[in-house]
Write a structure and sequence with these properties.
This protein has 494 residues and is an alpha/beta fold. The protein has helices spanning 38-56, 83-91, 95-112, 128-140, 155-161, 172-178, 219-231, 245-260, 291-296, 308-316, 328-350, 359-366, 368-377, 382-400, 408-425, 431-462, 466-478, and strands spanning 3-6, 11-14, 22-27, 60-65, 73-75, 79-82, 144-147, 150-153, 195-199, 215-217, 235-241, 265-271, 274-276, 279-280, 324-326, 482-486, 489-493. It contains 17 helices and 17 strands. The protein binds zinc ion (ZN). Zinc ion binds at residues 28, 223, 248.
Length: 494
Amino acid sequence: MLYLYNTLARVKQPFQPINAPHVGLYVCGPTVYGDAHLGHARPAITFDILYRYLTHLGYKVRYVRNITDVGHLEHDADEGEDKIAKKARLEQLEPMEVVQYYCNRYHRDMEALNVLPPSIEPHASGHIIEQIEFVKKILDNGYAYVSEGSVYFDVEKYAKDFHYGKLSGRNLEDIVTETRELDGQAEKKHSYDFALWKKAAPEHIMHWPSPWSEGFPGWHMECSTMGTKYLGEEFDIHGGGMDLMFPHHEAEIAQSCAALGHDSVRYWMHNNMITIAGKKMGKSYNNFITLEQFFKGEHPLLSKPFGPMVIRFFILQAHYRSTVDFSSEALEAAEKGLQRINEAYARLLKLKASTETSANIVETIAGLATRCEEAMSDDLQSSTVISALFDSAKAINTVADGKGTISETDLAELLATWKTFAIEILGLRLDADDNAAAGNQNMDAYKGAVDLLLNMRLEAKRNKDWATSDLIRNQLTELGFTIKDGKDSFEWSL
Ligand code: ZN
């Protein structure tokens, strides 16, 4: 049985899909106005291993990860300039050029990290009509009001009928004291009311017609709308970074309850943050390092370049709900760890089976698959899977060094466990695999080239072009090939 920690219930719960074997998974994706940094890698990798593990368990997962390309404003998403429109203004680009550019780069970085693409990647700007319909439902149910062409969620009204703040553990009083009064909020009844639709200022370049004004949707709106559009009014899992819990996910819950009369999400899952010297990493903190900078080693905080698999391994070494503190030293340690895993896997591929498994390794390898399965089923304890792999690496080295033996059955099982957990579920691209694949490809190309030459020679012989025929044979012989001529055929070896 798979147990997942449900942030809303604040407890690990057995996972029971609404409509097994189908599972609906929604994860908040990036706002595409800049390059992905280490803070983006964590949710992507966390929910990637959830996606992979659910698939491994036999579920048919529909994984939706959105692209925010409109409506995410600078201050708490609700005030200030649109992040994409601002970038477009600064770079003198059409906003959708900004979106496309950073989307492409995001995909490139995710591919490098071996993060599988989601089943659907909807863009907020592609779902304006659906968002308008969603806002209408909230208005019809009386939980929103129109003011100066904008539509705001009526938090006070909502809080009378539902618990606003239940995900992040806040009361309305906490929210009142937390919320800053900002300029331009006079049109709201309360500073903590959030925008469902914003009337565009004249200089605002991204806007669409609506019953209330020429404008654009509030940021929280897209996830409520696209989650329910693609996964149903009630779906299984909603994930994202812990920093999105408030106000974004809290607002999503409120919007869904206000529009539909009930929650949309069964299990809320949140990954913890990556810190640098204890401080949150993010654009607003000026301490972020982009993934590209990691891969190229181009940042003052980095001692050297770190490959994408090192970043992935570094993140998976911690449980997703604990914080990870970044430093160059921590990455160097992860690189050494990954190196050990790589070496063990390369040796595993070359191990020779004996008649039986020796006593000094039998215990380590016998329980390996179960240990990994139990760890993943206990709220995705990737760190425990990694320790189990390290333990089995010792067993592999014992056999490879001639200090132990392994039976054919145990060897097959050990190899299958590594393939399942290290490669398929943790998603590590192991060097030995890459090299073997590249090696096979090279071998195929080389054989093809020699065959091509000898077929050309055969054709020359048929045409009685002895000069060409001899030239090919002599040159290949000089390179060390042995050629045996048959009747209208050939064989060769090196
Ligand atoms: Zn979202």
